[in-house]
Amino acid sequence: MGLNAEQVEHFREHGYIAPIDVMSEDEAGQLRALLEEAEAAYPEQLHAEHRNNPHLVLPFFGAITTDPRIVDKVESLIGPDIMLWSTVLFAKAPQSGSFVSWHQDATYMAVGPHNDVTAWLALTPSHLGNGCVSVLPGTHKSGKVEHVDTFGDENILTRGQEVVGVDPSTAVHLELKPGQMSLHHPWVVHGSQPNRSDDRRIGLALQTYMGTDMRPTKGPQYVTHVRGGAVDDSWSVLPLPTDVCDDSGLANRQVANQSFADILYDGAEKRRKL
Ligand SMILES: O=C(O)CCC(=O)C(=O)O
What we know:
Blueprint: H1 5-14, E1 16-21, H2 25-41, H3 59-65, H4 68-78, E2 82-84, E3 87-92, E4 100-103, E5 111-112, E6 116-122, E7 133-135, E8 147-149, E9 161-163, E10 172-173, E11 180-184, E12 190-192, E13 201-211, E14 215-216, E15 222-227, E16 236-237, H5 247-264
Parallel strand pairs: 15-16
Antiparallel strand pairs: 1-11, 2-13, 2-15, 3-13, 4-12, 5-14, 6-11, 6-13, 7-10, 7-12, 8-9
The site of 2-oxoglutaric acid (AKG) has 12 residues, from strand 6, strand 12 and strand 13.
């Protein structure tokens, strides 16, 4: 089932929608259990520095990328022909200082013209106390705004990029139960605070669902096909995995993450590991 007219209007006006029910808390708990089982079995492959594109090595996250309970809602915003650029596992350890500075996703993505949306699926409760995603409503209407690179140690973002001159008092905190998601616009300014709770805060960002009318502006770039019309030849299409961390999945993730790093660090003074 897609979004209703009120939700679509809210997205156009404010740049986000939340909360949206996707699955039961039990099902989200099962996904978390599968993730933690895989993390225990493949610690070298699944740790904080390997947070990008887990859907290319974990079949249960691969299946989430095409799940109609998510993609039907996405389709209401970007149309029926859909591909996915990447996923990011935003897992904050208990009582950790890790945070995400105020930023726009689209600033560093090198794709366009924008017809895309990020879905953020909660696998644990996500609230202000454990650093849920917070957005600055309406900021998507300003288009691209200036960021500075901070490379802050506890900043989860690639280059610690941060929008200058934000007024955090206007923020809306997207509190979610496990199994709920939020949707946010590629230009909406958003971020998140540290996790001050005794449990992990885990969310899978499906980042970003794009209409197949979008093109890379610096190549090469990798996508997975989600539904509808074919993907243009200007993209390289990667398959979803069949087994946890098998050789082909790891190779696909490597190639996608390398391209991801080259794009996200373009023009940066230094690099961290991706
Ligand atoms: O999970 C977080 O704390 C931040 C997520 C985020 O920045 C995003 O999904 O674009």
